[in-house]
Amino acid sequence: MYRSHHCGQLRSKNIGERVVLSGWMATKRDFGGMTFIDLRDRYGITQLIFNMETDEALCLAARQLHREDVIQIHGDVRERSNKNPDIPTGDVEVVVSEINVLSRSKLPPFTIENDTDGGDELRMKYRYLDLRRPVLQEQIQFRSKLTLAIRKYMDQQQFLEIETPVLIKSTPEGARDFVVPSRLNPGQFYALPQSPQTFKQLFMVAGMDRYFQIVKCFRDEDLRADRQPEFTQVDCEMAFVHQEDVLQTFEGLTRFVFREMLSAELPEFQRITYDDAIRLYGSDKPDTRFDMQIIDFTDPVKGHGFKVFDQAEFIGGLLLEGKADEYSNKNMKEITTWVQRPQVGAKGLVYAQWKNDDTIKSSVGKFYPDDVIKSWFEAAGGQKGDILFLMSGEDALTRTQIGTLRLELGRRHELISPTAFKPLWVVDFPLLEWDEETQRFYAMHHPFTAPKTEDIEKMNSDDRKVLESIRADAYDLVINGAEIGGGSIRIYDRALQEKNFALLQFTPEEAESQFGFLMSAFEYGAPPHGGIAFGLDRLCAVMKGKTSIRDFIAFPKNNMGRDIMIDAPAKIDEEQLKDLSLRVVKKS
Amino acid sequence: MYRSHHCGQLRSKNIGERVVLSGWMATKRDFGGMTFIDLRDRYGITQLIFNMETDEALCLAARQLHREDVIQIHGDVRERSNKNPDIPTGDVEVVVSEINVLSRSKLPPFTIENDTDGGDELRMKYRYLDLRRPVLQEQIQFRSKLTLAIRKYMDQQQFLEIETPVLIKSTPEGARDFVVPSRLNPGQFYALPQSPQTFKQLFMVAGMDRYFQIVKCFRDEDLRADRQPEFTQVDCEMAFVHQEDVLQTFEGLTRFVFREMLSAELPEFQRITYDDAIRLYGSDKPDTRFDMQIIDFTDPVKGHGFKVFDQAEFIGGLLLEGKADEYSNKNMKEITTWVQRPQVGAKGLVYAQWKNDDTIKSSVGKFYPDDVIKSWFEAAGGQKGDILFLMSGEDALTRTQIGTLRLELGRRHELISPTAFKPLWVVDFPLLEWDEETQRFYAMHHPFTAPKTEDIEKMNSDDRKVLESIRADAYDLVINGAEIGGGSIRIYDRALQEKNFALLQFTPEEAESQFGFLMSAFEYGAPPHGGIAFGLDRLCAVMKGKTSIRDFIAFPKNNMGRDIMIDAPAKIDEEQLKDLSLRVVKKS
């Protein structure tokens, strides 16, 4: 037996007991004739004590130990004279009578503490040491407990967890698939699922009624920061539901896990249409922890000879309250430069300050008299002491840029409570999204999303504007400006599904060869159904107030999709390639 | 709202309520002026009733419905005159006032009942209809509930569920890997994990203490019946444990899930060494639901001029009690032919019958007098009325063949209680397994398995017999003759791991390039650790008394690794291949 207790377990009631503990040597202090060791495991820390006077050999052995050595000790629990109220075992210590060194540690390549001196690459390479840091232990445990809480709720709601295959079929729609060559079927490939979408719909056709799965999904994308080629979804589907049933069920799930994990009671789940989200926040995932909305200045500011505005499709503004006197010329120049960064991409920024001394200062002061500018403030609900920022240009692009500035102002001026959670349903997404480059429609959510019943007729139009105006029963759950989940009510009628594929430029043959099994399933009694998928990694990050998902993943990959620790991907044997009927060719 | 209740919900207390139900039309009966419909969903069946006299139009509409049509009805719950005690809703029926047809069904390609007329291929193609059959609904639900029960126990035991990566690195050891070409790293490949072995060991080094995961694993094998290229493991690892700790913990898990799922109290978990299992049962996964053991006749039968026995390395027998008079010459010929089938591969079968009239009948009667044969029976604990079957040849092979005959005798003579569960730990597996073909050792379990402490010294030998005699702390959990799980205590010392790799014919460079990260981890304070992995599909099958795992998997693949429904694997676009720097070549 390696231990009688773990390192977070001993309390006053154990005083006088003989115990065996095992763990890592976290810290060591020599103090007079005594040596103190903090022995650490996942559960906590216990103080060990050695005495030169009573057992010199043992105390000397303890002094030989290095950080991260793994030891087993035998000893007696006694009351601690110098109690430590910060840790649960702080009332006791263990007087050691025997040490067994189980495993020695070399000097770790970085310090194993929350504030480590290790850089990203080094910590990825020694991820097993990085994972010993308390903050990562905490986050990995959080994720484990969160999945338990999710499963508890889903079971209460009669969802079955059913596994779907990982080796499936490649489809051209959506992101790029990872593929897996089949040895038994030479020249043919499986694909790894981007989501179990068609399978979960088939579960509904199969009468499973309520399905969920916490499941790995895969996307072979050019990796941006904080994207992983493999990620985990909480994937859900329900039969005999309208959109409202889905929203209620998953509002319930969200409330449940925030309560179980954080003892947090979420406020009302507000709802906003996609159109309003874009119009008011310049984003389909608005951060509603602060109120600032985009104000439409297109009409008010035109016709004063300022060409940039006069020629703009859209002019929008943000009202920053109470900061007029804080912004110097230098500040204004700096924030103008900020919006001109490639990541934001604005051409420029117009400002107007209504200073507390009642003067107006504006970058467009020569075109607009003070009283006109004051009328802008009034229209925006502003007053003396406020600033207006204005941007102009093509409608959609400008709103996005203003939305980005809005978030930056929120951060800079600490308008966002760090402890608030603001859940929001974004609803009524468009069914189709026009792509200028390829001059065709793509599915905004995915090709299985149902249009709103009242918009089905519009699918017969060949007018692009009409088609763009089709709304879908599609919805996203956004919390604090992060997209946590998204889903839709699905098509369950073969003819409607064929119609939708046609709008998405599938030939009937392509539709049949790729999704024939699904359309065929719709002919054998398919119930109305819909669902949602949550990004588990993102949900963890939002709940714990982190911006990166990486530290909720035990072994993440870097931005080139590499696992630095195991050095993957890697070359494989010629023999393996031959078995797979494959040859590697140089890129032309 | 599609429904106020599901189809398994209504009871006497609902009589008089107005309800909305949705589901599939399972059966329809016209009876006098009435029509009865069984409406089905996952939760049950509710009887609907229509009356030609009170609403002719509605009743006619009902009579138009086809099997598997999806409908929504409004109606009133009333007491049923002709109660059906076999179903929970059997006390009530619903008088329908409105039908909405949600989705029509064509005639299904096979009957959707437990005893279906659909063949394997057809049911695989229409798996979404196959899954509507009650027996499959039941098995898929069982699996879902079983995973919940497993997670409940593991949480109680402080195991964390942590996900490991699916895109890892190919290693030549063990079965063939599925590989995934990396587009961002041309010419390089990920591999899909055969198990998360190294990652779970790294979790122990990382101080996670207790890890588990219900996880998909992958093996690119030539598929035998009832093997799947992707399968699910309950994968577990614990730090600071000896073998006994692991066995206790997972005996606990097994008892827990049998109790929760089947209300079954398992008998004592017997233990047998690998050597004894082979010696007594000719199998490393003996079915101990019946006692019949292999009896060693090597010495007693030699020297009577029967050349086959005189030249054999080993002669073993089975005692079949009380059946001597049942076996005719024809029966004996039949069972002899049976053991000569290629699947068993025996050269022949010797028998001796001690008939109830005290005569002896034996295929080797001319070499052995009756009293000698009677002495065999006595040595075997047999008596008048029994049969002895004897087989001879090379030791290991013969024991395996006798073991196969043993199982067949158990089946034929119904020696196995169909409701019994007999758990058994097989322990003390050899560390190494000699392969005649390649003239080298392979790891019996895997290369990370620890030899027993007292056998470590033997690893320095270059005598094959000495090396073969090394025992490992490796164990299998066998229930009713099926291997449910297997595991081992692991090496956690770099030098010992290097030694083991060397015995397995890894060059130091190969060991370093493939498993350097793990050996490096052992240098930074690795705790002693060990674990186990359970086959979830197999566990389901054994618990439900089934021999095939396939119907516990929602979308299984056939023996060529194909998903017939979605038609995968399949060819991919030239463009995709080019992006991956690959070309398909003809097999030479």
UniProtKB/TrEMBL annotation, chains A, B:
GO BP terms in the entry: aspartyl-tRNA aminoacylation
Protein name, as recorded: Aspartate--tRNA ligase
Segments crossing the lipid bilayer: none
Alphabetical UniProt keywords: Aminoacyl-tRNA synthetase, ATP-binding, Cytoplasm, Ligase, Nucleotide-binding, Protein biosynthesis
Taxonomic superkingdom: Bacteria
GO molecular function annotations of the record: aspartate-tRNA ligase activity; ATP binding; nucleic acid binding
Record: residues binding L-aspartate: 173, 219, 445, 490
Protein encoded by which gene: aspS
UniProt family annotation: Belongs to the class-II aminoacyl-tRNA synthetase family. Type 1 subfamily.
Subcellular location: Cytoplasm
Binding of ATP, residues: 219-221, 228, 483, 535-538
Native source species: Membranihabitans marinus
Function: Catalyzes the attachment of L-aspartate to tRNA(Asp) in a two-step reaction: L-aspartate is first activated by ATP to form Asp-AMP and then transferred to the acceptor end of tRNA(Asp).
Quaternary state and interactors: Homodimer.
Catalytic activity entry: tRNA(Asp) + L-aspartate + ATP = L-aspartyl-tRNA(Asp) + AMP + diphosphate
